[in-house]
Design goal:
Strand 1 and strand 2 form a beta hairpin. It is flat, with a radius of gyration of 54 Å. An 8-stranded antiparallel β-barrel has the order 1-2-4-5-6-8-9-10. The longest helix has 26 residues, at 8-33. The chain is α+β, with helices and mostly antiparallel strands and 255 residues long. It is built from 3 helices and 10 strands; from the N terminus they run ααββββββββββα.
Length: 255
């Protein structure tokens, strides 16, 4: 029986093919792992701590804060009630709700009064804590100035303005205005705003007025020194013998 086998030339060919395949595999694998030709991608360098510190973080922007204007005017705001069964208006601490509607503070005790005398001669008074504010007339003699709705007298809401001056207590000699904004009649009440200025300006005015009232004999007279004679000019002196003789007969009494 004939056996199949490799002849010497065939065995040589097979050996060459095997060697060729073994050498080709690493080359193909190396090419597969090699990136394609071209410009390599630039990678960002790692930021060091020094670089991070050199770039300051942006400061947060703070919301602007409204600054109140500087003033020496003191403003007092209260709520007043005008009950129909009382002759004097009562003042209470004021409260404002979330809808900006004003009203008396719940459970608060009265803080003062407003009195309008019925005689029409005595000026109105506003009492707040330990100070009594007296209303005084303007130059035209008017004390109470009303502004009515549609200029119809008595129509509400209405606004009453008075000039006042403080007597005693914390606001001694303070002066300003008391403004009462009426909501309605029948004891509905309203808001009273008292705007006051300290007496420093009045004190200066009083000092000027007092200086103007000083009698003439009390005013010191400033002595003006005599002006010296100009240099180079001699002051003429009269000798006694050059004086005119005195007629002694004229000095004798008449008979």
């Amino acid at each position: 029986m004939r056996r199949f086998g490799f002849s010497a030339p065939g065995f040589l060919i097979v050996t060459i093919l095997l060697l060729a395949g073994t050498m080709a595999s690493p080359v193909a694998a190396f090419q597969d792992a090699t990136p394609p030709a071209g410009t390599p991608a630039v990678t960002s360098p790692i930021q060091t701590d020094v670089q991070a510190a050199a770039t300051p973080a942006a400061a947060p922007t703070a919301a602007p804060v409204a600054q109140a204007a500087v003033t020496d005017v003191v403003t007092l705001v209260l709520w007043y009630t005008n009950p129909v069964d009382a002759e004097i208006i009562e003042l209470f601490p004021i409260a404002i709700d979330a809808g900006f509607v004003a009203g008396p503070a719940a459970g608060a005790a009265p803080s003062g009064t407003v009195d309008f005398p019925e005689d029409g001669v005595t000026p109105p008074t506003v009492v707040i804590a330990d100070t009594t504010f007296e209303a005084y007339p303007r130059a035209d003699g008017v004390i109470q100035r009303w502004t009515w709705l549609d200029d119809f007298e008595g129509a509400r809401p209405g606004t009453l303005v008075m000039q006042i001056s403080g007597q005693g207590g914390q606001y001694q000699d303070f002066y300003g205005t008391a403004t009462m904004v009426s909501r309605d009649e029948g004891g509905a009440g309203g808001v009273v705003v008292v705007a006051l200025r300290p007496p420093s300006l009045d004190a200066a005015a009083d000092a000027d007025a007092a200086a103007a009232d000083v009698p003439a004999e009390d005013v010191p007279v400033e002595e003006v020194p005599a002006e010296p004679a100009p240099e180079g000019e001699a002051v003429a002196e009269v000798a006694p013998e050059e004086l005119a003789p005195v007629d002694e007969t004229a000095l004798e009494p008449a008979a």
